[in-house]
Amino acid sequence: MTIREMLRGLPVLAHDMPSFDPVDVPGTPLDLFASWFAAAVTAGVDEPHAMTVSTVDADGAPDARVLILKDLDEEGWHFATTSTSAKGRQLAGNPRVALSFHWRELGRQVRIRGVAHPARPEVSRRDFLARPFGSRVATLAGRQSEPLTDRSALDAEFARVSERVAADPDLVAEGHTVYLARPETVEYWQADRQRRHVRLRYRRTADGWERELLWP
User: Fold this and answer.
1) Cβ proximity of 136 and 158 under 8 Å
2) Which domains does the chain have, with CATH numbers?
3) Most CB atoms closer than 10 Å: which of 82, 126, 142, 204?
């Protein structure tokens, strides 16, 4: 069987999904996201806080990776990375960013487009110290995305940094940065087994948020 045949044989939208009435929705996209996120947690969606973060490099080429949502407030969505990483450098050169969530079990997607800027240093510090031990060690080991010639070098660096963190639990990685993605558009997509999907887009204007339905 070819890959194409395997792909064609896979089921799509074969499970039960909730309904979504785009008329009875909050006035801001952040309130609707909070509601959908809570529903995803309640439904047992695996890692509902995982999101794809897309940026562009200096040549305008897109880049994407999955990160964890750190917070949501009235300003927008928060995520963290090292400022010297590829995505950190890309955001420094062009702060435009896209975030996307996919909650397969509910047949739902959320797409956010906006601009990301670093949060206050104390926010980044608190976030770093709240991370699990292994996560702090990995960040302090640094060199993200650089070529690795031998896995033993990684093991040695992790062992060295683990001793540092154990000796100084308040040690913070200098480049660890929390970014706030301030949304300009937010689109909500609810799947339908008959392909009559619901798409609702919020668009920021000078007077607040406008809502519009989109053809599926």
Assistant:
1) no
2) 23-131+174-214 (2.30.110.10)
3) 82
